[in-house]
Design goal:
The complex is a heterotrimer of chains A (257), B (221) and C (227). With 257 residues, chain A is of the alpha/beta class. Helix content of chain A is 36%, strand content 27%. Chain A has 9 helices and 12 strands. Classes of the chains: A alpha/beta (257), B mainly alpha (221), C mainly alpha (227). At the B-C interface, helix 1, helix 3, helix 4, helix 8 and helix 9 of B face helix 1, helix 3, helix 4, helix 5 and helix 8 of C. Bound molecules: adenosine-5'-diphosphate and magnesium ion.
């Protein structure tokens, strides 16, 4: 399947790296995702916005099957994640995930946090893992904190470590679930700067966030979700300036205040 | 399989032993009624001493707590019951058990109260004293109620341990439930009476144990 | 004789101390032996059960919950008597030592499982999410991420409980395990003097006081906060 993506100068046609089709998910009686269709092209930065409880986190969590969707299909680079025979752990390595609450391992040092999966999953030696881990920490500007424990870091630093932890597995896509929502305002900038660098380097990213300024300048596409459905999607100018849907308009106006 | 049933779950033997065990259960209940309040009150004294301003009291309390944390309760009981007569003091089994439990469980209840009292913030003291309450009034009507509420699970858990521990009274021939059951066993050459006693302990203590699991297993977000 | 002399004569009699110390020391060795065996098997079994429980296989978990509840609710002495007097009647002859070890190990396992499971549950769910999202499997996440945190939370209550349960080695005297208090009681009946009892008390203090001190140290040491 081909899709048009507004990127840089004009629309290009590329096959998506992540493609979600007809995804549904319920928690008991509550229908959280009602048939989501959604695709991300390589190197694209897609922003997902929408009111609280609309299913944004659930959508991201379904994309690496931290949550099991009820039906639908999730293709990552041509591999079906919903296939029961799919090697989930191998696929998850290729999808980086960054959480609102950082979720660093408190009992490990910063370097230990970053290298754990490389050593346990990829079977790398400690030396090799440390080397890659330090390089990833350097990318987020925290190489000097390698020996510190998470409790000694600020929220912004913790979140950058979490990004490095995902990064050093060389993911094809990175999912960010409100990466700056738990941060004090003065710490948000450092995390966004790292995300901006990632984008420059060509990382494919799906970001759930309320940082509208960042969305405007960095996103290729905005997806607006409400009540388990994608209501509208398009380039930032369109969503922010001339949304077609009344509910999008209301949400954007609310957020902009 | 039949042998197993015969030896451990023999209804006839259980029925035979029932009156004896029931009387033993009554004694166990009586014992609990004596030793639980003793432990709760003794524990309060230990906690107050271990938090007092006097260094002598604090060290005495600490020594007391460490001593009885290290000595097995059965050993304390035997020391009192078979040791004291050599000093001219012969205790009845009941008195020996009560004294042993007072010493042993005051130490554990005391540690629990202390944790509870320490969990109440200094602000509560200051607020109460600033309204003109005396230190004693502050302690009994402001600090202690909060402290106790904070440690209810630990108090329940320790009380379950105390109830279980009353079974060692059988060693000094106090005729509580296990003693009665063991007597029935030695007469019938059959283990069923003790299994019956076990079942009764289970019926009494299982709800408390379940409740404790509820307290302990709070799932983190 | 003054009162003090009489007291010393019946509680700290040097002749009797000289005569009975080998028995008391051999009792202490047996107490230490059982205690160590109980700690090793009990804690290992308890941790094993807690790990199995985290896989949440329904019938297995029901079994574990029943096991834990029963062994937490029953007095160890009751279990000791049932096994010691009951098993020979169905053709299983276990030594008193084995019965004591088995019962105390199972009791400790029940408490250890409960404490560690509480620790596992109190690790935040985000820790599982983070680890699984980097491709760690369930077992890998349990071992490398969850257990280290759960164990740290479990250590203070577990040391307290372990001390309390290993002290129950004294219950062995009831079924004739020749540990300290058993040795002391038979010495008392031979000598008609309380000195062996005091020796036994001191013997227990020598064994358990350092353990209690270690426990308090660990408790302070592991007052550890999460990030
Ligand atoms: N594990 C869960 N169990 C039950 N309900 C859940 C669970 N996770 C999320 N939900 C519900 O699903 C809905 C969508 O949640 P979420 O995806 O977190 O929304 P968003 O991230 O957009 O705020 C909410 O109503 C939430 O209460
Ligand atoms: Mg969310």
């Amino acid at each position: 399947m081909q899709l048009s993506v507004a990127q840089g100068a004009g629309a290009v046609r590329v096959s998506p790296i992540l493609q979600v089709r007809g995804l549904t998910k319920r928690f008991g009686p509550l229908e959280v995702l009602k048939g989501i269709d959604f695709a991300v092209a390589p190197q694209e930065l897609v922003f997902v916005i929408g009111p609280s409880g609309s299913g944004k986190s659930t959508l991201l969590r379904c994309c690496n099957r931290l949550e099991d969707a009820d039906s639908g299909s999730i293709l990552l680079d041509g591999v079906e994640l919903m296939d029961p025979k799919c090697d989930l752990n191998a696929m998850r390595r290729r999808i980086g995930m960054v959480f609102q609450s950082f979720n660093l391992y408190p009992h490990l040092t910063v370097l230990g946090n970053v290298t754990l999966a490389m050593r346990k999953v990829l079977g790398k030696s400690r030396r090799e893992a440390d080397e890659i881990g330090l390089a990833a920490l350097d990318r987020v500007g925290l190489a000097d904190k390698a020996a510190a424990y998470p409790a000694a870091l600020s929220g912004g630093q913790q979140q950058r470590v979490a990004i490095a932890r995902a990064l050093c597995l060389n993911p094809k896509v990175m999912l960010f679930d409100e990466p700056t929502s738990a941060l004090d305002p003065e710490l948000v900038g450092s995390v966004l700067a790292v995300m901006r660098d990632l984008r420059e380097a060509g990382m494919t990213m799906v970001v759930v966030s309320h940082e509208m300024r960042f969305a405007r300048e960095a996103a290729d596409r905005i997806v607006f979700m409400e009540a388990g459905c994608i209501v509208e999607e398009g380039p930032p100018e369109q969503i922010f300036s001339a949304p077609a849907n009344a509910r999008t308009r209301a949400f954007v106006a609310e957020i902009a205040r | 399989m039949e042998l197993l049933r015969q030896q451990f779950f023999n209804i006839d033997v259980m029925v035979q032993a029932w009156p004896l065990i029931l009387r033993g259960l009554g004694m166990t209940a009586l014992l609990c009624l004596a030793v639980i309040p003793l432990g709760l009150l003794g524990g309060l004294a230990v906690a107050v001493a271990s938090l007092s301003r006097s260094r002598l009291l604090r060290w005495t309390a600490k020594g007391f707590i460490d001593l009885f944390r290290a000595l097995p309760p059965l050993v304390v009981l035997i020391l009192l019951y078979s040791g004291l007569p050599f000093a001219g003091l012969r205790l009845t089994p009941f008195a020996a058990v009560c004294l042993a439990f007072l010493l042993n469980s005051s130490c554990f209840y005391g540690e629990i109260y202390r944790a509870g009292i320490e969990s109440v913030g200094r602000g509560q003291w200051e607020a109460a004293r600033s309204t003109g309450l005396s230190a004693a009034q502050t302690f009994t009507s402001v600090i202690l109620p909060q402290a106790v509420r904070n440690v209810v699970p630990d108090l329940v858990s320790n009380t379950v341990e105390v109830v279980k521990l009353t079974s060692i009274a059988s060693v000094v021939s106090f005729t509580e439930m296990l003693y009665a059951a063991d007597m029935a066993r030695s007469v019938t050459f059959n283990t069923s009476p003790i299994v019956l006693a076990a079942a009764i302990y289970l019926v009494i203590l299982w709800p408390a144990v379940r409740l404790m699991s509820r307290f302990e297993h709070r799932v983190a977000a | 004789m003054t009162g003090f002399e009489r007291f010393a004569e019946s509680f700290f009699n040097p002749t009797l101390i000289g005569r009975y110390w080998p028995e008391i020391v051999s009792g202490m060795l047996i107490t230490v032996e059982i205690a160590l065996a109980v700690v090793a098997t009990g804690i290992m079994l308890g941790f094993g059960l807690a790990c199995v429980r985290s896989y949440r296989v329904l019938p297995l978990n029901a079994f574990i919950v029943v096991f834990v509840d029963v062994f937490r609710a029953l007095p160890p002495l009751v279990l000791i008597l049932i096994l010691y007097f009951g098993l020979p009647n169905i053709g299983l002859n276990l030594s008193a030592f084995t019965v004591l070890w088995l019962v105390l190990s199972l009791v400790l396992a029940a408490f250890a499982e409960e404490i560690l499971w509480a620790g596992i549950l109190s690790v935040r769910k985000g820790q599982w999410d983070a680890a699984r999202s980097t491709g760690l499997g369930f077992g890998q996440t349990l071992v490398s991420v969850i257990l280290p945190q759960a164990v740290r939370l479990a250590i203070p209550p577990l040391t307290n409980r372990t001390i309390a349960i290993t002290k129950n080695t004294a219950l062995g005297s009831v079924i004739g395990v020749s540990e300290v208090i058993y040795q002391a009681q038979s010495a008392v009946s031979f000598s008609g003097n309380a000195t062996p009892l005091m020796m036994a008390a001191i013997g227990y203090l020598l064994i358990f006081a350092p353990v209690v001190a270690l426990g308090s140290f660990i408790e302070r040491r592991f007052a550890w906060r999460r990030a």
